[in-house]
From TrEMBL:
L-glutamine binds at D70, Y215. Its EC number is 6.1.1.18. It catalyses: tRNA(Gln) + L-glutamine + ATP = L-glutaminyl-tRNA(Gln) + AMP + diphosphate; tRNA(Glu) + L-glutamate + ATP = L-glutamyl-tRNA(Glu) + AMP + diphosphate. This is Glutamine--tRNA ligase. Residues 31-340 form the Glutamyl/glutaminyl-tRNA synthetase class Ib catalytic domain. It comes from Blautia hansenii DSM 20583. The gene is glnS. Keywords: Aminoacyl-tRNA synthetase, ATP-binding, Cytoplasm, Ligase, Nucleotide-binding, Protein biosynthesis. GO terms for molecular function: ATP binding; glutamate-tRNA ligase activity; glutamine-tRNA ligase activity. It is an enzyme of class 6 (ligase). One of its GO terms (cellular component) is protein-containing complex.
Amino acid sequence: MEKETAKETVSKNFIEQIIEKDLAEGKYDEICTRFPPEPNGYLHIGHAKSILLNYGLAQKYHGKFNMRFDDTNPTKEKVEFVESIKKDIQWLGADWEDRLYFASNYFEQMYEAAVKLIKKGKAFVCDLTAEEIREYRGTLTEPGKESPYRNRSVEENLELFEKMKNGEFKDGSKVLRAKIDMASPNINMRDPVIYRVAHMTHHNTGDKWCIYPMYDFAHPIEDAIEGVTHSICTLEFEDHRPLYDWVVQELEYVHPPKQIEFAKLYLTNVVTGKRYIKKLVEDGIVDGWDDPRLVSIAALRRRGFTPESIQKFVELCGVSKANSSVDYAMLEYCIREDLKMKAPRMMAVLDPVKLVIDNYPEGEIEYLEVPNNMENPELGTRQVPFGRELYIEREDFMEVPIKKYKRLYPENEVRLMNAYFVTCTGCEKDEEGNVTVIHCTYDPASKGGNSPDGRKVKGTIHWVCAETAVEAECRLYENIVDEEKGVYNKEDGSLNLNPNSLTVVKGCLVEPELGKAESYDRFQFVRNGFFCADCHDSKPGAPVFNRIVSLKSSFKLK
Ligand code: ATP
Ligand code: MG
C-alpha cells in the first residue's frame, strides 16, 4: 500500500504538483480548467494533448472543465471551425457538459475592464501609428521611449475610448494601451496595446463592435469571468505571464486565475501547425482537412485512429517544460496496441494472383469456421468460404525461390491459413512471362490448417475464395513530408513534400464479410496491417479501406 502511494507521487507531473499544493493550501475549493481554441482551423494532435490534459486534470481533481471559443479576432474565424472543433473534442472523450463559452460574449465586460483601467490611470489612448509604436518599443537591449500621448488625462482618455467604441475613428488611427513600464526588460510590459479599432463584422456579435481586445488583455479576463483557476497554455506565452498577472491584479479579481505553461507537442515528420495544414488544404495538395495523411483530429479519425489510442499516446508523451519532438512511431505503437485485441483479423489480398487447387471438387464451396481474433476469443468466429479457385498475394509465390523463401514455389508445401495444406505443382504465364495462374493440390486431411501426421510446413499464406471475393480499394500512406529532407525547406521555409505519400491500390480482393464494412469499421488484414473503412468513399459492396498502420515496427517503448 505504502509503496504504491510513493510511486504515485513520483509520477505526478509538474502541473499536478502545482494544483495539489494550491488545493492543500486552500487557495481554491475546486479547480477549473479550460480549452480555449481560436476557431480558425481544425484541431490537430497537439490540441488533443491540451484538451486531454485540461480535461484530465479537471476529472482527476473533481473540478470543472470549460470549453471556450477564443473568438475575439474577427478576421480569421469561421462557424465551420466551431462545429468541427466541438465534434473533435467530443470524439476524443472530453466532456464539457453545459460549460460551453464564447469569449465574444464577454466583449461588454472587457470594455468595462478597459474603462476601469483608464479610471485608475492605468491605460491611455495613443495616436501613434503601428510603425511608431514599434519604433518606440525599444529592443531587447535598449529600453523603449514613452508615447507623447501617455499622460493624457483620465477624462480625455475616457472620452476618446468611448469615441473609439462609437466608431468615430478609422482603423489603426488610435489604440488603447496599458500604462506599465517602457523600461521593463520584458518587452510585453512596455505599454502593450490592449484594444484596437477594427471595423469588421464578427461571426457572433455582427457589427456591434468596432473595437476589439488584444489576446493578452482578453485572455486573463475570459479566465477570470469563468472562474478558471489554472489557465494552462503553451511555452510561447511564458514571457506574457507578467502581463497576464498585471491584468488580473489591476482588475482586482477576488479569485485571480493563474497561467501555467507546458511544452507543445511536436511530432517528427508530420505537419502540425494550423497554418501549414491550412496551406496544404488550400493548395489542394491534400483532399481536405481530414485527409488521412494529416494529423488533424478529423484526419486521424478518418484514417482509423481510436480516441483510446490518442489518449494513450498523450499519456505516454507526458507533460514537460522542455520542447521536444515525439517520434511518429509512438503514435503508431499506440494504435497497434489498441487494435490488437479489438479488431477482427481478416483476409484481404492486395495484389491478387489466382491459385487453383486441381484436386479440389469443382463447383464446391465449403465454409470454414475461423476465429475473429486469436488473442481475443470474445470476438467470436466467422464462416469463411473456401473453394477450388482462390486468390493469394502475388508475392507469396516464386517460380524460382530466393534463398530462405518459405512460401509457395514448385514442389513446396505451405499452409493456407485456417484452411488446408497445399503443395505447388506449377504455374501458367502470359506472353510477357507474368504468372497468371498457380496450380497446387491439397491434402483433405489437413483441414483447419493442421497437419494430419505431424508433417511440418514452414510457410502460412492468406487467401480469399475467388467466387465470393469482393473487390476493394486500399489506400496506403506514407509521411506527407520527405523524411530525408526534413519537414521544412531550409531555404524558403516551404514544405518538403513526399511524392509517394498516397498509394491507391485498386482491385484488391477481400473476404465477403469485409464487403459489408461500414464507415470507421476497423480490421486487421493479415500481414498487411490495420485498415479502416473510409467514411467518405466506402460503400457496402464496394469498400474502400485506409491503412491506419502496418503491422511491424522497430519502435520499442522505453
Ligand atoms: P497552432 O500553432 O497549431 O496554430 P494555436 O496555438 O494557434 O495552434 P489555438 O487554437 O490558439 O491554436 O490553441 C488552443 C490551445 O491549444 C492553446 O491553449 C494552445 O496552447 C494549445 N496548443 C496548440 N498547439 C499545441 C501543441 N502542439 N501542443 C500542445 N498544445 C497545443
Ligand atoms: Mg493561436
